[in-house]
Every structure is written in C-alpha cells, then in structure tokens.
From TrEMBL:
SUPFAM superfamilies: Thioredoxin-like. This is Thioredoxin family protein. It comes from Flavobacterium lipolyticum. The lineage of its organism: Bacteria, Pseudomonadati, Bacteroidota, Flavobacteriia, Flavobacteriales. Residues 33-141 form the Thiol:disulfide interchange protein DsbD N-terminal domain. It is a multi-pass membrane protein. Residues 189-400 form the Cytochrome C biogenesis protein transmembrane domain. It is found in: Membrane. It comes from the Bacteria. The chain crosses the membrane at residues 187-211, 232-254, 266-287, 308-330, 342-366, 378-396, 416-437, 449-469. Gene3D superfamilies: Glutaredoxin (3.40.30.10). The keyword Signal applies. Residues 1-19 form the signal peptide. Keywords: Cytochrome c-type biogenesis, Membrane, Signal, Transmembrane, Transmembrane helix.
C-alpha cells in the first residue's frame, strides 16, 4: 500500500512536466509602405501570462536577447536604424548579476528598411528569442514580407534563403539603447529611497538648524496662526516644486531613456564613480561644495519682498544655502535614478523634496514640537561623515559596472569586497570614536545611539569577510560582481572547492561542471561512460542563459544530499540548447520534426530534445538507464530539494532493481 501511495505521489508531483511542446508566444507579422522605397516591418508577439520574452538589449551574461537576421539583403535592401521595441521592463537578476530587460503580455518590434533593388520583392527575416517562466525556451521564427503586395506571413525554415547578410542585434554592453521603463514597483522603490535620502539631508549641519529658524520666522511674521500655517505650507510646496523642476530639467535635457543609456555606458560609469568620490570627500570634510554666494544674495533680496513670491524665493534660498550638504545627496540620487531611466529622476526629486519639506510644514502647524528637537551639535557632522562613507562605498559599484562591461577583470569580486570591508571597517572605528575627521567636535565619550549604529556597521563588516572565501553574501546581492567574476571562483584559498571531486581523474569527454560534478556535454560520450560504469544517466537539458537552470544548480544541486547523488550515483550529461558554436558543415541538417535548419550545437540538442522527448523547455531532467529508457517521468524546475531528491532516488532505485 505504501508503495502505491508513493508512486501516486510521484505521479502527481511530476505530472506538470509531462513531455510537451510549449509555445507561449504567438506571433503576427505586418508590413506598411512608408514611401516609394521605404517599408516598415512589424512583428507582434502575444505572450502568455507570467512568461517573459527578453529584449534585444538585455546585457551579455544574462538571458538570451532577441535577435533578427535579414536574409539576402546585400544589394537588395538596407536597414534604416535598428529595430525598435515596445515597452519593456527591467529587473535585476541576482543569478547572472545583470539587469534583465524583458516584455510581458506583448512584444512589438518594428524595423524600417529601404528597397535598393526594385527587382527584389520578397524580404525574409529570422527572429530568435528566449522566453522564460519556470522554464526557458529558445525559439526561432521565420517571416516573409512581400514588398509588392504588402503581405506578411510566417514561413518554415526550409523556405529561407541561405544568404544571411544583416543582423540587427546590438551588443548591449557597448550600445545599450533600449526603450525601457522601470515597472511601477521600481518607481515606488526610487521614491522610498529618495524620501529616506531627504530625511538624511535634514540631519546635516546645513539643513537641520534652519528648521526652527524658518518656522519661527513664519509664525512671528504672520498675523494669525492660520496665516503662519498657510505660509509654511506654501514654503514646503515651493521646496517640492523647485526640486521636481530640477529632476524634470535633467530628464528633458537628456531624454527619459537616454539617461539609462548613459548610465550603463562605460565612460559614464567612470564619470559617476569620480563624482561620487568627490561627493564623499566633501562629506568627509576635505572641502565644501558650494554655489556662488552672489546667487544666495540675489535670492535673499527677492525673498525680502514678502508675499507668495517672497516665500518661493525663501525656498530657493534654502536650496542654495544648503547645497554643500544636499548637493552630494541629490547628485547621488540623480545618478542612481538615471540608471533606472524613464521618469525616475522626477520621481526621485519628488521623494527627496517631500521629506525635506515635511518638517517645515508640520512644525509650523504644531510649533510646540520645536521644543522636542535635539540641539544642534557635533552629532550633525557625524551624520554627514556617515553619509560620506556610504557615498564612498556606492562609488565603487559604478567602477565595478565599468569593469564588468569591459570584462577587464581588474576589479573582480574579491577586490570589491576588500574595499567595502575597509570602508565599513573604518566607518565602525569612526563611530566608536577611534578616528576623528576635520570638522568633528572634541568629545570624551560617544552616545548610546552612536555606539548602537557602530555595532551594526561592525556586524555588517564582519558579515562581508566570509565573501572572500566564497560566501554568497545574499544580503548585498547585486552590489558586488557575481561570484563567477572572481580571480578565485572557489574563494580565497580554494575553500569553496568540492574536495570530494577535486582529485577525480576525468573520463574522456568529461569536464568539471557546477560544484565540480563530473559532467559530459556530448550525449554519445556520456552514454558510453555510463555503460562502462553501469550507472544511470541524468540527462540535463539546459542553457547558458537559462535563469532557472542556474537556480537549480546554485540552490538545489549544491545541497549535500543532492550533490552526493550527482557525484556518486549517476552520470550527468548536460546538453546546452543555446550553444551557438557552429556544427561542421557535414553535420548540419534540416530537422524532420520541426523543419528547422540545424546549424549549431545548441540547435542539435534542442532538436534532440524535441524529437525524442517531445519537449522544448529548460531545465528538463530525465533519468535514463544504459539502454536509453526512461526510469521515471521527466522533471522540470523543482526548487524543493526534498522533492527533487525523492525523484532522483526513485529512478535510481528502479535502475538498481
């Protein structure tokens, strides 16, 4: 009875991965004549719920970007610019360590072409893309556009000419010009970060002392309490409008999406790095960043006139006078918002200015609260120095971005972590009073609050240290370079190395896969080895750009229970369906199953999966015996370690019996 229940459990657990060809994107093509010789080709994809198609501009080392190949274009037609895209979304992928740019619900590409040979009436286009949910699928579609009849249709691969001459994919690490916007949730996050930054600015020596002075001015100069409150509210709204105007100007000058393109460019990352270093030095006391005094004097003269105009100029005077403290914070905020593109700079300035204006309005409404404010003193400079250290740490993120884009390996994970450990360690010593800086007030003791913050910073510093030895440091995921971008992938001293497999002699055709598991990337060689050692085969259909494949490897295969099985009880054959290496000409063919041309190693293994197992998604796991018969139902993405272990053990048990 127990065996029956167990079999039923396995049946239902893996029913969801029954062999099937998944097609989550439906494509339609259309053509529009723009002039006597110019035509616009459009590709519209309707995407099933929760699936994502990746943009042409998704960075390298991430999911596969969409790519267009225009056939037989030489001397017949030319591409005008690059293919444009409909609205995309951006999200950081901690597995690959890059931002994904993707479509949800629908994807629309348009490409303008110019006919140069009137005799050429047919344009054939090949669209390759990756679509992911729990599994990933790499797909290629073929389209034909008739320039004479203005008809467009999807065709089979066998109907495509062999002359591929134009490729419209972009190297996104050099020329990332995506027309993308942050999702609403990302804009909310920008607003929250900016709001907190505004509160931080309030606690600096340039702004905090102005709260009681400004509020007292309004309450004393106004004839009634209501009038004082009204004036203070106008003052607060003026502050918000001034900073939102600044964000709007930045966005209008550079363009909503150009900001994103700039921020991901190598040279601008280096410029941002230098800017943040300058801001940090200013906060640490090396010098002050100030606007010309003449500006403040002229604004003060206008403020003296009174009325609403005078109040607006008072708000402008606050912005100018406090610039030495707020400038670096605003600069950092705009740099970070620029990396999000769209209206993020405007949203950022709205959040920052709202936090800055709120205390002035609240204290005007409730003047008695002024008595509860702490007195100005040395603690304000401590806040400023604290922000300086944070600016310094953030600066190296931009330097890291530039190094990652260029793949120079000058600023790898260990160097980044060592710098952060030094920065936050020094900050901890500063908070404990062991280090003093130019503008610090002499003190014989530190406050309990400062001690508490110092302990938190010290704890964070200690948390970073194991990262040098290969610890994942999920708390700061996305800030340091990914673990694969390291001078020692196993951690300093090789402590992360799987010692149980380190001394193994690799069989012919094998290599060290994830966690040093012996793995084959050629099916025939792996099968031959499995027969020689009489072990079952774990056939792993995977992809270099498959997110959930990496999640399985990082979080499931790394578990000691699973790792032991993969090292000792099965032969792992990993077939990469997105391997772009060309097959020798004599090995290229047209698939009898799909009609597609099989020209690369990845095409071969994808066709192998579709033809033999009637499935096209990755990850896709199959347990086979040495006669290539399935030992259990295939499994897909299975993040539950216990469930995956039971699936492995059930197939292995069947092989042994």
């Amino acid at each position: 009875m127990k065996k029956i229940i167990y079999v039923l459990f396995l049946f239902f657990a893996f029913a969801k991965v029954q062999a099937q060809i998944i097609n989550p994107v439906k494509w339609e093509a259309s053509i529009e004549k723009k002039s006597d010789s110019e035509y616009q080709l459009s590709f519209k994809g309707t995407i099933e719920k929760d699936w994502h198609v990746y943009s042409q501009f998704t960075p390298e080392d991430g999911p596969l970007p969409a790519e267009f190949l225009f056939h037989d274009s030489k001397n017949n037609y030319e591409l005008i610019g690059k293919a444009t895209e409909s609205e995309t979304h951006r999200k950081f992928n901690e597995i690959f360590g890059v931002d994904e740019i993707f479509f949800s619900d629908k994807a629309v590409f348009t490409q303008l072409i110019k006919q140069t040979n009137p005799e050429k009436e047919v344009v054939q286009v090949e669209l390759s893309y990756q679509v992911c949910k729990e599994n990933c699928i790499s797909e290629t579609k073929y389209f034909e556009f008739n320039l004479k009849t203005l008809e467009a249709k999807e065709i089979q691969a066998a109907d495509i000419t062999n002359d591929k001459t134009e490729k419209t994919t972009v190297n996104p690490t050099i020329e990332k010009q995506a027309e993308s916007e942050k999702t609403d949730s990302s804009l909310y996050m920008i607003f929250i970060i900016a709001f907190l930054s505004g509160f931080a600015a309030l606690l600096t020596p340039c702004v905090f002392p102005m709260i009681p002075m400004t509020v007292s001015f309004f309450t004393k100069q106004s004839k009634t309490k209501a009038k004082g409150i009204k004036n203070a509210i106008i003052y607060g709204i003026s502050i918000i409008l001034i900073y939102v105007f600044l964000g709007s100007v930045i966005t209008l000058l550079f363009g909503a999406d150009a900001l994103n393109a700039l921020s991901t460019n190598v040279w601008f990352n280096i410029i941002f790095f230098i800017l943040l270093i300058v801001f940090a030095a200013s906060f640490l006391g090396a010098f002050e960043i100030m606007l010309p005094n003449s500006w403040a004097n002229k604004v003060d003269q206008q403020a003296d006139k009174g009325g609403i105009i005078g109040i607006v100029f008072m708000a402008l005077a606050l912005a100018i006078v406090s610039f030495s403290c707020t400038g670096p914070i605003i600069g950092t905020l705009l740099v970070e918002a620029a990396s999000k593109g769209g209206i993020a700079p405007i949203v950022g300035m709205l959040g920052f200015s709202s936090a800055l204006a709120l205390p002035f309005m609240l204290f005007a409404m409730f003047p008695g609260w002024l008595n509860t404010l702490p007195k100005s003193g040395g603690w304000l400079n401590t806040v400023k120095v604290f922000l300086g250290f944070l600016e310094l740490a953030l600066a190296f993120k931009f330097l890291s971005n530039a190094d990652l884009v260029l793949q120079l390996h000058w600023f790898e994970r260990e160097i980044f972590l060592a710098i952060w450990i030094a920065i936050f360690g020094t900050l901890a010593f500063y908070l404990f009073g062991k280090i003093t800086l130019p503008h610090d007030s002499p003190t014989s003791s530190i406050s309990v609050g400062r001690l508490g913050v110092g302990l938190i910073v010290l704890t964070f510093t200690i948390y970073l240290i194991p990262g040098l030895w290969g610890a994942p440091l999920k708390l700061i995921s996305g800030f340091p370079p990914p673990m694969t971008y390291s001078e020692s992938p196993y951690g300093v001293g090789g402590s992360g190395k799987n010692t149980s497999s380190a001394e193994k002699v690799l069989p012919d055709g094998a290599h060290k896969g994830p966690h040093d598991i012996t793995a084959f990337t050629d099916y025939e060689k792996g099968l031959a080895y499995a027969k020689s050692v009489n072990k079952p085969i774990l056939l792993d259909f995977t992809g270099f750009a498959c997110v959930n494949c990496r999640k399985m490897e990082d979080y499931v295969w790394s578990d000691p229970r699973i790792l032991s099985i993969l090292n000792n009880e099965v032969v792992l054959i990993s077939l990469y369906v997105d391997d772009k290496r060309e097959l020798p000409l004599e090995e290229q063919y047209v698939s009898k199953e799909t009609g597609k041309k099989i020209t690369t190693i990845g095409n071969k293994w994808s066709d192998f999966q579709i033809t033999r197992y009637k499935a096209n998604a990755q990850p896709y796991y199959i347990l086979l015996d040495t006669n290539e018969q399935k030992l259990s139902k295939p499994a897909g993405y299975t993040p539950d370690i216990t469930e995956y272990e039971q699936w492995l053990k059930s197939g292995i048990a069947k092989f042994q019996n």
